[in-house]
Amino acid sequence: MKIIELNKSITESNDEDARKLRERLTAEGVLLINIMSSPGSGKTTFLSKTIADLKDRVSIGVMEADIASAVDAVRIEAAGAKSIQMHTDGMCHVDAGMTERALQEMEYEGLRLIFLENVGNLICPAEYDTGAHLKVMLLSVPEGDDKPLKYPLMFSESDALIITKADTADFFSFDEGKCVSAVKRLNPDIKIFKVSAKTGEGMSSWEEWLSLQLPQ
Ligand SMILES: Nc1nc2c(ncn2[C@@H]2O[C@H](COP(=O)(O)OP(=O)(O)OP(=O)(O)O)[C@@H](O)[C@H]2O)c(=O)[nH]1
Ligand SMILES: [Mg+2]
Q1: What is the reported pLDDT for 10?
Q2: What's the structural domain count of the chain?
Q3: In 3-state terms, what secondary structure has residue 95?
Q4: Nearest bound ligand to CA 42?
Q5: In which residue ranges of the chain is pLDDT below 50?
Q6: What is the DSSP letter of 8?
Q7: Residue 132, domain extent
Q8: Residue 41 — φ and ψ, nearest 5°?
Q9: 205-216 exposure pattern, b = at least 16 Cβ within 10 A, e = fewer
Q10: Suppose 73 and one of 85, 108, 143, 190 were both cysteines; which one would form an S-S bond, judging by CB atoms 3.0 to 4.6 Å apart?
Q11: Which ligand sits nearest to residue 36's alpha carbon?
Q12: Residue 14 beta carbon below 6 angstroms from any ligand 1 atom
Protein backbone atom coordinates (compact mmCIF):
# COMPACT_ATOMS: atom_id res chain seq x y z
CA MET A 1 0.00 0.00 0.00
CA LYS A 2 1.39 3.38 -1.06
CA ILE A 3 1.33 6.65 0.87
CA ILE A 4 1.44 9.79 -1.29
CA GLU A 5 1.92 13.43 -0.32
CA LEU A 6 -0.31 15.85 -2.20
CA ASN A 7 -0.39 19.62 -2.49
CA LYS A 8 -3.24 21.82 -3.57
CA SER A 9 -3.59 21.57 -7.36
CA ILE A 10 -1.92 24.39 -9.27
CA THR A 11 -4.81 24.75 -11.69
CA GLU A 12 -7.58 27.21 -10.88
CA SER A 13 -10.16 25.39 -12.95
CA ASN A 14 -11.21 22.73 -10.49
CA ASP A 15 -14.73 22.34 -11.91
CA GLU A 16 -13.36 21.81 -15.41
CA ASP A 17 -10.72 19.33 -14.19
CA ALA A 18 -13.43 17.47 -12.27
CA ARG A 19 -15.70 17.30 -15.30
CA LYS A 20 -12.89 15.90 -17.48
CA LEU A 21 -11.92 13.31 -14.88
CA ARG A 22 -15.54 12.19 -14.48
CA GLU A 23 -15.93 11.81 -18.26
CA ARG A 24 -12.72 9.79 -18.51
CA LEU A 25 -13.74 7.43 -15.71
CA THR A 26 -17.20 7.00 -17.27
CA ALA A 27 -15.57 6.06 -20.59
CA GLU A 28 -13.39 3.56 -18.72
CA GLY A 29 -16.40 1.97 -16.99
CA VAL A 30 -15.31 3.02 -13.50
CA LEU A 31 -17.68 4.43 -10.86
CA LEU A 32 -16.06 6.91 -8.44
CA ILE A 33 -17.90 7.82 -5.22
CA ASN A 34 -16.89 10.64 -2.87
CA ILE A 35 -17.58 9.64 0.76
CA MET A 36 -17.89 12.57 3.18
CA SER A 37 -18.72 13.11 6.86
CA SER A 38 -17.35 14.60 10.06
CA PRO A 39 -14.38 12.87 11.70
CA GLY A 40 -15.33 9.58 13.30
CA SER A 41 -18.84 9.21 11.82
CA GLY A 42 -17.85 5.76 10.66
CA LYS A 43 -16.69 6.14 7.03
CA THR A 44 -13.90 3.56 7.16
CA THR A 45 -16.00 1.08 9.16
CA PHE A 46 -18.91 1.48 6.71
CA LEU A 47 -16.61 1.06 3.68
CA SER A 48 -14.95 -1.99 5.24
CA LYS A 49 -18.35 -3.65 5.74
CA THR A 50 -19.44 -2.73 2.19
CA ILE A 51 -16.19 -4.20 0.82
CA ALA A 52 -16.56 -7.40 2.85
CA ASP A 53 -20.10 -7.85 1.48
CA LEU A 54 -19.42 -6.98 -2.20
CA LYS A 55 -15.79 -7.86 -2.92
CA ASP A 56 -16.59 -11.24 -4.48
CA ARG A 57 -18.87 -9.53 -7.04
CA VAL A 58 -17.13 -6.18 -7.72
CA SER A 59 -13.46 -5.15 -7.83
CA ILE A 60 -13.21 -2.26 -5.35
CA GLY A 61 -10.52 0.31 -4.52
CA VAL A 62 -10.43 3.02 -1.86
CA MET A 63 -8.42 6.24 -1.82
CA GLU A 64 -8.03 7.35 1.79
CA ALA A 65 -7.48 11.08 2.34
CA ASP A 66 -6.16 12.21 5.71
CA ILE A 67 -3.90 14.87 7.12
CA ALA A 68 -1.59 12.18 8.56
CA SER A 69 -1.14 8.43 9.20
CA ALA A 70 -2.07 5.40 7.10
CA VAL A 71 -4.38 3.70 9.57
CA ASP A 72 -7.48 3.87 7.35
CA ALA A 73 -5.74 2.49 4.25
CA VAL A 74 -4.40 -0.38 6.36
CA ARG A 75 -7.96 -1.14 7.58
CA ILE A 76 -9.31 -1.07 4.00
CA GLU A 77 -6.65 -3.50 2.77
CA ALA A 78 -7.49 -5.81 5.67
CA ALA A 79 -11.14 -5.70 4.52
CA GLY A 80 -10.03 -6.94 1.10
CA ALA A 81 -9.83 -3.91 -1.24
CA LYS A 82 -6.95 -2.16 -2.96
CA SER A 83 -6.10 1.08 -1.16
CA ILE A 84 -3.88 4.12 -1.32
CA GLN A 85 -3.29 6.66 1.45
CA MET A 86 -3.30 10.32 0.40
CA HIS A 87 -1.85 13.00 2.70
CA THR A 88 -3.43 16.38 2.03
CA ASP A 89 -0.65 18.68 3.31
CA GLY A 90 -2.88 19.94 6.12
CA MET A 91 -5.84 20.65 3.87
CA CYS A 92 -9.35 19.77 4.96
CA HIS A 93 -10.59 18.63 1.53
CA VAL A 94 -9.59 16.91 -1.70
CA ASP A 95 -9.85 18.55 -5.14
CA ALA A 96 -10.02 17.05 -8.64
CA GLY A 97 -6.28 17.33 -9.33
CA MET A 98 -5.43 15.51 -6.09
CA THR A 99 -7.98 12.81 -6.91
CA GLU A 100 -6.52 12.33 -10.38
CA ARG A 101 -3.01 11.98 -9.01
CA ALA A 102 -4.05 9.48 -6.39
CA LEU A 103 -5.89 7.44 -9.03
CA GLN A 104 -2.75 7.26 -11.17
CA GLU A 105 -0.62 6.26 -8.20
CA MET A 106 -3.13 3.58 -7.18
CA GLU A 107 -2.94 1.91 -10.63
CA TYR A 108 -6.69 1.48 -10.77
CA GLU A 109 -6.86 -0.61 -13.94
CA GLY A 110 -9.23 -3.51 -13.36
CA LEU A 111 -11.19 -1.76 -10.60
CA ARG A 112 -14.87 -1.06 -11.28
CA LEU A 113 -15.83 0.78 -8.11
CA ILE A 114 -13.59 3.31 -6.38
CA PHE A 115 -14.39 5.18 -3.18
CA LEU A 116 -12.64 8.37 -2.18
CA GLU A 117 -12.85 8.65 1.62
CA ASN A 118 -12.57 12.42 1.97
CA VAL A 119 -10.98 14.17 4.96
CA GLY A 120 -13.30 14.02 8.00
CA ASN A 121 -15.04 17.40 7.95
CA LEU A 122 -18.65 18.48 7.36
CA ILE A 123 -17.74 21.76 5.70
CA CYS A 124 -14.84 22.01 3.17
CA PRO A 125 -15.26 18.67 1.31
CA ALA A 126 -18.74 19.78 0.19
CA GLU A 127 -17.26 22.81 -1.56
CA TYR A 128 -14.98 20.95 -4.00
CA ASP A 129 -15.90 18.77 -6.96
CA THR A 130 -13.46 15.85 -6.88
CA GLY A 131 -14.53 14.38 -10.21
CA ALA A 132 -16.61 11.69 -8.50
CA HIS A 133 -19.86 10.51 -10.11
CA LEU A 134 -21.72 10.40 -6.80
CA LYS A 135 -21.44 12.05 -3.40
CA VAL A 136 -22.44 9.97 -0.43
CA MET A 137 -22.39 11.45 3.07
CA LEU A 138 -22.62 9.84 6.49
CA LEU A 139 -24.23 11.26 9.61
CA SER A 140 -23.95 9.14 12.72
CA VAL A 141 -26.67 8.98 15.38
CA PRO A 142 -24.37 10.34 18.17
CA GLU A 143 -23.71 13.54 16.17
CA GLY A 144 -27.33 14.67 16.51
CA ASP A 145 -30.36 15.29 14.30
CA ASP A 146 -29.69 19.05 13.96
CA LYS A 147 -26.65 18.75 11.67
CA PRO A 148 -28.61 19.38 8.42
CA LEU A 149 -29.68 22.73 9.89
CA LYS A 150 -26.13 23.73 10.84
CA TYR A 151 -24.17 22.34 7.87
CA PRO A 152 -26.67 22.49 4.99
CA LEU A 153 -24.28 22.44 2.00
CA MET A 154 -23.13 18.83 2.27
CA PHE A 155 -26.71 17.62 2.75
CA SER A 156 -27.81 19.67 -0.29
CA GLU A 157 -25.00 18.35 -2.49
CA SER A 158 -25.13 14.65 -1.67
CA ASP A 159 -26.85 11.95 -3.73
CA ALA A 160 -27.25 9.72 -0.70
CA LEU A 161 -27.21 10.11 3.08
CA ILE A 162 -26.24 7.19 5.29
CA ILE A 163 -27.46 7.54 8.86
CA THR A 164 -24.91 5.38 10.66
CA LYS A 165 -24.42 3.80 14.08
CA ALA A 166 -28.13 2.91 14.19
CA ASP A 167 -27.25 0.42 16.96
CA THR A 168 -26.59 3.35 19.34
CA ALA A 169 -30.11 4.83 19.01
CA ASP A 170 -31.08 3.85 22.59
CA PHE A 171 -28.31 6.02 24.03
CA PHE A 172 -28.92 9.25 22.08
CA SER A 173 -32.03 11.34 21.55
CA PHE A 174 -31.74 11.33 17.75
CA ASP A 175 -35.08 12.28 16.20
CA GLU A 176 -34.92 10.52 12.83
CA GLY A 177 -38.17 12.10 11.53
CA LYS A 178 -36.89 15.59 12.32
CA CYS A 179 -33.53 14.88 10.68
CA VAL A 180 -35.06 13.35 7.53
CA SER A 181 -37.54 16.26 7.07
CA ALA A 182 -34.73 18.82 7.39
CA VAL A 183 -32.63 16.91 4.85
CA LYS A 184 -35.53 16.51 2.41
CA ARG A 185 -36.27 20.23 2.61
CA LEU A 186 -32.69 20.88 1.46
CA ASN A 187 -32.56 18.06 -1.06
CA PRO A 188 -35.87 16.38 -2.01
CA ASP A 189 -34.18 13.77 -4.28
CA ILE A 190 -31.62 12.46 -1.79
CA LYS A 191 -31.65 8.71 -1.03
CA ILE A 192 -31.52 7.97 2.70
CA PHE A 193 -30.33 4.72 4.27
CA LYS A 194 -30.15 3.92 7.98
CA VAL A 195 -27.46 1.41 8.85
CA SER A 196 -25.22 -0.02 11.51
CA ALA A 197 -21.89 -1.13 10.09
CA LYS A 198 -21.36 -2.88 13.43
CA THR A 199 -24.43 -5.14 13.39
CA GLY A 200 -24.98 -5.09 9.59
CA GLU A 201 -28.51 -3.66 9.98
CA GLY A 202 -29.65 -1.80 6.84
CA MET A 203 -26.50 -2.59 4.84
CA SER A 204 -28.31 -4.70 2.23
CA SER A 205 -30.58 -1.81 1.07
CA TRP A 206 -27.54 0.43 0.61
CA GLU A 207 -25.62 -2.32 -1.22
CA GLU A 208 -28.60 -2.98 -3.52
CA TRP A 209 -28.78 0.73 -4.43
CA LEU A 210 -24.99 0.86 -4.90
CA SER A 211 -25.05 -2.16 -7.21
CA LEU A 212 -27.65 -0.39 -9.39
CA GLN A 213 -25.31 2.61 -9.80
CA LEU A 214 -22.47 0.48 -11.24
CA PRO A 215 -21.75 0.80 -14.95
CA GLN A 216 -23.12 -2.20 -16.88
N1 LIG B 1 -21.56 1.38 17.59
C2 LIG B 1 -21.06 1.63 16.38
N3 LIG B 1 -19.83 2.14 16.26
C4 LIG B 1 -19.36 2.39 15.01
C5 LIG B 1 -20.12 2.12 13.85
N6 LIG B 1 -19.39 2.51 12.77
C7 LIG B 1 -18.22 2.97 13.25
N8 LIG B 1 -18.19 2.90 14.60
C9 LIG B 1 -17.11 3.33 15.50
O10 LIG B 1 -16.90 4.73 15.33
C11 LIG B 1 -15.50 5.05 15.46
C12 LIG B 1 -15.04 5.82 14.23
O13 LIG B 1 -15.19 4.99 13.08
P14 LIG B 1 -14.36 5.20 11.73
O15 LIG B 1 -14.88 4.22 10.76
O16 LIG B 1 -12.91 5.20 12.01
O17 LIG B 1 -14.82 6.68 11.35
P18 LIG B 1 -14.29 7.60 10.17
O19 LIG B 1 -15.44 8.42 9.73
O20 LIG B 1 -13.64 6.77 9.12
O21 LIG B 1 -13.21 8.51 10.90
P22 LIG B 1 -12.14 9.51 10.23
O23 LIG B 1 -11.53 8.82 9.05
O24 LIG B 1 -11.15 9.75 11.32
O25 LIG B 1 -12.90 10.76 9.86
C26 LIG B 1 -14.79 3.71 15.66
O27 LIG B 1 -14.58 3.53 17.04
C28 LIG B 1 -15.78 2.70 15.12
O29 LIG B 1 -15.65 1.43 15.72
C30 LIG B 1 -21.43 1.56 14.00
O31 LIG B 1 -22.18 1.30 13.05
N32 LIG B 1 -21.85 1.35 15.29
MG1 LIG C 1 -11.75 6.96 8.27
Answers
A1: 65
A2: 1
A3: coil
A4: 1
A5: none
A6: -
A7: 2-213
A8: -70, -20
A9: ebbeebeeeeee
A10: 85
A11: 1
A12: no
